[in-house]
Amino acid sequence: MNKKLIISILIFAIVAIIVFMVHDLFFSNLEQEKPYELKTDGLNTYDSTLVLYDEVEPIQVNMDEVRGIAMDNEDNLCVTGSLTIVYEKNGKEKLKFSHDSVAQCVAISDSGEIFLGMHGRIEVWSFKGKLLRVWDTENSSSVFFGIVVDENSVYVSDAKEKVVLHYDLNGELINKIAGEDSSKGIPAIIIRSAYFDIALGRDNEIWVVNPGMHQLEAFDKNGQLKSTWGEYSNEDVKYFCGCCNPTHIALLPDGKFVTSEKAIPRVKIYSQMGEFVGFVAGPDLFNEGTKGLDLAVDSENRIFVLDPERKQVRVFEKKKDK
Amino acid sequence: MGTEEHKDKMSRRDFLRKSMRLTILLGVGGLAGSLLSKSMAGKMVWQIDTKKCTQCGRCTTECIKKPSAVKCFHAYDMCGYCDLCGGYFRPGVKDLTTAAENQLCPTSAITRKFIEEPFFEYDIDADLCIGCGKCVKGCGAFGNGSLQLQIDQSICDNCNECAITRACPSQAISRVESTEPYLMLGLRDDITWKNKS
Question: Do B67 and B126 fall within a single domain?
């Protein structure tokens, strides 16, 4: 009897060991195979109730490299890069012209002149695709990233010099805006990758992104610092993530800010005071690694997002219930 | 007539002699050709294609070298010298200090050095690096991707059948010419690679 009991216990123990070994070999948590892997999936999650916009039909751009977009006062959308194409409001191609080198940024004046920021120079084109003027800037190695135009001035952000150049419409340099000036309490522009966008505010103030500081800074035409806002967090969607964000900005007609980021590719809305309002597009709408999401806004508050990965201009309309 | 036919026919001895000569000739020729092609082709070594690498961490556990021959290399010219380095700090840390609990690297192989506000330089201690790729993933996710995993050719035994190549889930490892043994992004002659062997 005792012998039978011992044998039964031994058999049970052997079976248990075999089951344990088989489980450990074939059915244990597969994640154990990657004990050193850093999990970043959770960073792309967000509350979908914060999305305020719906995506509508995008504009497919037929061009090798797409870099920048701008909207004119008649809601014509201009896309630039290896060439420049202007689309009508209905998405139909209106104008197309090529240039010698790739343009990084574009702006359209009220008179219909198209300003292209190139490597070390600015080209001015007519709305018929004719080259009108070329401004060779004082630093031939300047990397122009953002350009805006008002009735008297052209502002160009130079990522190389970390300063905004203020020109008149004939290309005469008036002054330099932003860039470190401790006597005026102006912080240095920190650029860790070549993203340095600007936008014009409702009161003709110039909003400058300081990406390494994760903040936006407002200057008047004389270069006086008026306001700043923005904070860093990789965890909280209310703030800007990564080493250097936002990469691009635009302003809605009511003065709210539209921002886009890299690392976690997303487009968000902030109030006039810099408070987080909601999402235009979350990271799930973009391919992994997408960056360079330039922004434009039309008169109907539609938001246009350049997607260089898909070579599209993505179009977003505000949800009716938001 | 019968004698001529006999002359045309090869004798068994001649046949064997000629066959032997031909065999030796082919053998020597083949050996010489093989040696020549090997010397012309150059040595092949294993290397990681950084575009395919997903930093799964298997380079640490699968390599026969302990610690792994895979190391983190730093492309300083691509680096943003960030104060909030995604390759150095664990995601979500509150204090940006060098305390061990704030660091992403499991072996503290990355040192952080203040340059000027707000710029910091990050150096890899290759002796401590185990090639897990955590920092590489963090840098790529939040920064410029200047940290990259590569097989350190001064450590690699260049096995015929590389263990991490078999385990790599993204087939990122292949043989490359030993004259161009690194496949890093942005690899240029004018870039400073402080820990390039």
Answer: yes
The amino acid at residue B173 is I
Say if residue B27 is in the same domain as residue B87.
Answer: no
Task: Give chain A's radius of gyration (CA, Å).
Answer: 26
| Per-residue model confidence as pLDDT tens digits over A210-254 | 999 999 999 999 999 999 999 998 888 999 998 999 999 999 999
B127 and B50, same domain (yes or no): yes
Nearest to A37 among B56, B85, B92 (CB): B56
Task: Provide the residue range defining the domain that includes B6.
Answer: 2-41
A14 min Cα distance to partner chain B (Å): 30
Question: From CA A81, how far away is CA A101, in angstroms rounded?
Answer: 9
Judge if B126 and B160 occupy the same domain.
yes
Indicate if B84 and B125 belong to the same structural domain: yes
Q: Which phi and psi angles does B133 have, rounded to 5°?
A: 85, 5
- Give the DSSP letter of residue B194: T
Q: Model pTM?
A: 0.80
Q: B143 and A232 in contact by Cβ < 8 A?
A: no
Domain co-membership, B94 together with B14: no
Q: State the distance between the two ends of chain B, measured CA to CA, in whole angstroms.
A: 79
Question: CB pairs below 8 Å between A and B: how many?
Answer: 73
Q: In this structure, are B55 and B27 located in the same domain?
A: no
The total domain count for chain B is: 2
DSSP 3-state of A290: coil
- The number of C-alpha atoms within 13 Å of B192 and in the hemisphere containing its C-beta is 5
Instruction: Please list, in sequence order, all residues whose beta carbon lies within 8 angstroms of the beta carbon of residue B21, skipping any fewer than 6 positions away.
Output: none
8 A C-beta contact, residue A123 and residue A103: yes
Q: Which of A33, A37, A244 shows the shortest C-beta gap to B55? A: A37
Residue of B nearest to A31 (CA): B56
Specify the 3-state DSSP secondary structure of B78.
Answer: helix
- What sign for the dihedral angle of Cα B179, B54, B105, B140? positive
Express each pLDDT in B118-141 by its tens digit: 899 999 999 999 999 999 999 988
Whether B73 maps to a domain, the answer reads: yes
Measured between CA atoms, the residue of chain B closest to residue A189 is B118
